[in-house]
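Standup notes, protein team

Yesterday: finished cleaning the Clostridium yunnanense set.
Today: Helix-turn-helix transcriptional regulator structure.
Blockers: none.

Input for Helix-turn-helix transcriptional regulator:
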Amino acid sequence: MNKAAKNTKELYYTDNEKLYTIKKDSLDEINIVKASKNNLFENISNNFIYNLKKLIQLEGTQKKLAKKIGVSEDLLSKYKSGDAFPSIETLAYICNTYKIKIDRFINLRLSALELENIEKGLYSNSNIFFGSYYCYFFATNIGKDDSIHEGILEFHEERVSFRILLGDSIMKDFSGNINNSEKIMSFNMESTEDGIAYLSMAKPNINKGKYVGGLAMLFLPSDANSKPCCQKLLISNIRIDRNIYYENLKKLLTLNSSKLELRNVKLSTFEDETAYNFIESLL
């Protein structure tokens, strides 16, 4: 073999070895990436399945969740078992519906606090209120015993405002947040000038649809904001003539007890229904 041919052959072998080395390195990198992707997907899938099961628990049934996120119950079962993974639009819709960041939903298991906040959002009942309501309660000043104040309660998504009226003007103005527990709704409100007001009520019966009215407990400063006061508050979706219906309002707003000594004061379901029926009779 002449020298030129020998050099050509050696160069060929050398180039092939380099090519093999490059291909081998490329394949190794691809396999590493594939393995990394598989591990990532496995973690994402496990977190998704865990969080999905928690959402099913919050909704009560698999059927309810499937309907809410717009998939069939059979497909949801496949999501839950890991046999299928949702499309990006379905995943985005789930996160948007429950107000969860998408990277949080797939990368981490939801904490107890996050699930509690989601549950509060699901059962807040704040969406059954519309616009504004009229409110009626006894005046807190001693000199105005038995006179009934009128106010306005306004809802703005998760915010609420409470204004006490004096004729056509606003006498006091409070605003704050809507808070929920399992069976109670509370409105924590304050005013720079007028102090703090707190309103508490049983969660309205969702079967009534949009809230018509009922009773709540009002905690309000009295006597120039110097003394705390607790009393009944009537909430109504229509304005009530205080002169014509004074006796009805007085009866609904008076705290009654068959006992001589009071250990506590509670609003009963019967009282709330009575108030509701009174307002309904005026519609």
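Follow-up from PR in the comments: Residues 98 and 118 are 7 Å apart (CA to CA).
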